[in-house]
Amino acid sequence: MEFQDIGAKLRHARKVKKLRLKDVALAVGCSESLLSKIECDKTTPSLRTLHRIVSVLDTSIASMFANPRASEVTLYRDGERPVVAIGEPERANAIRLERLTPYVEGQALDGNIHVVAPGATNGGEIKHEGEEVGFILEGALELTVGSTTYQLTAGDSFFFRSELPHSYRNTGTGTARVLWVNSPPTF
Fold first, then answer.
1. What CATH number has the domain spanning 83-183?
2. Which of 23, 91, 138, 164 could form an S-S bond across to 19 if both were Cys, CB 3.0 to 4.6 Å?
3. Domain boundaries, the chain
């Protein structure tokens, strides 16, 4: 299942906050034109840009994909997980987030499998409150936390405080799959 209406949800969140395109674009560090294209689903932002937009709107990426019918137990079968596509899906450098947890207001954890195409990047440094833990399921990933860069391969794991600037990219020739958990939810 892919979500195609992120732009409409971002536009709604912006209007609820009574912010102009200009205000959000200035705070995010992008052009009004780019923000308008994102809101009209004419382009897909990088993970970094999407994270900046939702931060300005005082929300999270996960809330953009909230399921109002969350129950006590949520099961996602293999191949049936909700997917958030970051970047241009038709390009080889896209990132897909396979949701492991539904978004429910007030939850403490958020989990995804980051499926990162060769050469794909999250778009640059991100920082926010919380903690993150990850496990490389498949492929290779270059993770930068603060001023240190780590080369990770299948079987490696990581943990860091989310307040540290962090970014990642797939440096390998194959797709990387990373089990990634954040607390509190930011994606």
1. 2.60.120.10
2. 23
3. 6-65, 83-183
**Residue 175: closest CA among 98, 118, 105, 112:** 118
Q: What is the CATH number of domain 6-65?
A: 1.10.260.40
Identify the CA nearest to 99 among candidates 66, 133, 126, 68: 66
Q: Each residue of 99-142: pLDDT tens digit?
A: 898 877 777 889 999 999 999 998 889 998 899 999 999 999 99
Cβ pair 50, 57 in contact under 8 A? no
Separation CA 9–CA 55 (nearest Å): 14
What's the pTM? 0.71
Of all residues in the chain, the percent with pLDDT exceeding 70 is: 89
Burial class (CB in 10 A: 0-12, 13-18, 19+), 66: middle
What is the per-residue burial (b if ≥16 Cβ within 10 Å, else e) of 88-127? eeeeeebbbbbbbbbbeeeeeebbbbbbbbbebbbbbebb
- The 3-class SS string of 15-42 reads HHCCCCHHHHHHHHCCCHHHHHHHHCCC
Query: What residue spans of 40-92 are helical by DSSP H?
Result: 47-56
What's the token pair of residue 86? 């970051």
